[in-house]
Design goal:
Layout (H helix, E strand, L loop, with lengths): L3 H13 L4 H14 L8 H6 L1 H19 L2 H13 L4 H6 L5 H4 L5 H14 L17 H16 L4 H9 L10 H9 L2 H4 L2 H16 L3
Helix pairs in contact: 4-5, 4-13, 5-8, 5-13, 8-9, 8-13, 9-13
Length: 213
């Protein structure tokens, strides 16, 4: 059951945050030039430092969402950076994914996370389907569990519903027109909409770290 009081408090904090625009842009530009640095993940270290890692990836997802003005890209970028996977071509491919083409459909906090489940749990061989039947590592089963947890935490999975009940408090689909986008921006929607990417990225990395046990 969503804690709407805590969600509103977080939305208000995001609306009033002073964003380090230069610092965030510098990180993005470095990865655009040099690629996402690869990491050798140590399960023991990841598990021992899980809360610190989750705090960092949540903050980064909020920041990248603000810079990109794109929840799917912001979510995916933060997780890929934290885990050392993926590339900037994936970020490019996620351009039309907020609310699934701006229709108000599936939240980018979900789609940006699902991309990373595929990168982390999927097989390098597209013809190898054995991973799909492994209950501990099946991207499909993990995605289904993640989506249920996300909905329980945020209250909804669809962008338009999240905006109405959590972000702005009224119905608005910023993707439907230039006027709607201007209204959304004027109500600090891009700042406030860091909440679903932050929560999605945090939950996704939590799932991934727990799989290392």
């Amino acid at each position: 059951m969503p804690d709407y009081v805590a969600l509103k408090k977080k939305v208000d904090e995001l609306a009033e945050r002073t964003w380090d625009v230069a610092g965030i842009r510098a990180r993005v530009n470095k990865m655009a030039r040099s690629g996402i640095p690869r990491k050798k993940l140590d399960p023991k270290v990841m598990l021992a430092n899980k809360e610190q890692i989750l705090d960092r990836v949540q903050r980064r997802a909020e920041e990248y969402n603000f810079i990109f003005k794109n929840c799917a890209q912001g979510t995916a970028m933060a997780i890929m950076e934290e885990l050392g996977q993926g590339n900037m071509e994936i970020i490019k491919a996620l351009c039309p994914f907020p609310g699934i083409g701006g229709t108000g459909d599936m939240c980018g906090g979900i789609t940006g996370s699902l991309i990373n489940f595929g990168l982390f749990f999927g097989s390098d061989d597209p013809l190898d389907l054995s991973v799909m039947s492994d209950p501990r590592r099946s991207p499909i089963l993990i995605a289904q569990r993640f989506m249920a947890f996300f909905e329980d935490a945020v209250g909804h999975m669809y962008c338009a519903d999240i905006i109405e009940t959590v972000i702005l408090g009224h119905r608005l689909n910023p993707g439907e027109s230039d006027g709607a986008m201007m209204t959304f921006a004027g109500e600090k929607g891009f700042e406030k909409c860091g909440l679903p990417p932050g929560m999605g990225a945090r939950l996704a990395v939590d799932f991934i770290i727990d799989s290392m046990k």
